[in-house]
Amino acid sequence: MQSNTHQKTNWLTLGLCFVTTILEGLDLQSMGVAATGLVAEFNLQSDEMGLIASASSVGLLIGALVGGMISDRIGRKQVMIISVALFGLCSLLTPFAWDVNSLIGIRLITGLGMGGALPMIIAIAAEAVKPSQRAGAVTMMYCATPIGGFIATAVVMLTDDWRQIFYVGGIAPLLLVPVLIKFLTESEAFKNVKETALQDNVASNNSLGHSLFAERRAVPTFMLWLGFLCSVGVLYLLLNWLPLLLVGKGFTSDEASTVQLMFNVGGSTGALILGWLISRINQRLLFAGVCIAIAGALLALAALQHNMTGAMIAGLVVGIFANGLVFLLYGQAGSYYPTAIRGTGVGWSVALGRMGAIVGPLLAGILLVGTNDSSDVLMSILPIVLIAAISVQVLLSWPKAKD
User: Fold this and answer.
1) What is the CB-side half-sphere exposure of residue 268 using CA atoms within 13 A?
2) Which pTM was predicted?
3) Which of 53, 132, 257, 353 is most buried by a 10 A CB count?
4) Is-contact 337 398, C-beta < 8 A?
């Protein structure tokens, strides 16, 4: 009976993490969906819009670092609740911004909340299941992110008002907060670690060096960082530049938008497919296959000329596997750190991913200035995919944490 109750509690915990991921996905994509309305409302220049988008990314990076480390001290549940409340409140405030600077400030704080929530979702989901199920559980969690993006798009399409997306993206998380307070349970593994430390009168050593590099954790830490930096960098480069690169190859704007749509459709299914596969086939083979598929799709996009069917298929494939690689890495991140420092380890991994999200699009702009050839830019992504593949294979050869 106690086992059944525990199992129900775990399913409820995973369900609450899934809903939180949907709302975070909604807020993550709200600025992109609302961009046209924001530009018209505030008469924004392209550099100002870039600053607003960068503010969210910087907030996400800082929030992941700080939230992860704090959670190893005060618990996952408290940090999750504070983070969800913060990004919900700031999303609700976004339509009330009075100028560009206030908009930048609000989106920076929104990013802090979203950044704090992300490693908590990973840590809580990882600690709610058996160690052998962690990678699959966390990966499946992230098929909820595109659902949030679809909701954001639907709200704007149905209402034709950019403000509504921020009202929905603010009110929904705030309504979720009391549900999390009531029903989200603190990780049993975390409580046991803290209780043992208190009984033994041992102070937790949460210094960065001890947390991430001691006890043979240096290699998996660096491999996770490198994998996240490269994989998220590739994903955001394609998210931001794929339509423009296709136009540079001779496709029309409508054709490029259609390929981008296929990319997004692939992204929405990648986590679901790979999350199901990861517990059923060899992980090293799965990751190798994912990276090979990304490389093949990029080669196809670089080589194709005026072949719309081929471009759509390549866009779908790269969408599935470029998104899937990131989701699979999220699934791995919680497995290489013990419970006492899992929040810190996951937080730093997520932060390196956010750095990739900033650097990737900038790299594409630099490459285009240097070559002015879309095919060359697409080909130049291949070494980054190779580095990600190597880092993951080294990571998977390392033993995972036992608790």
Assistant:
1) 14
2) 0.79
3) 353
4) no
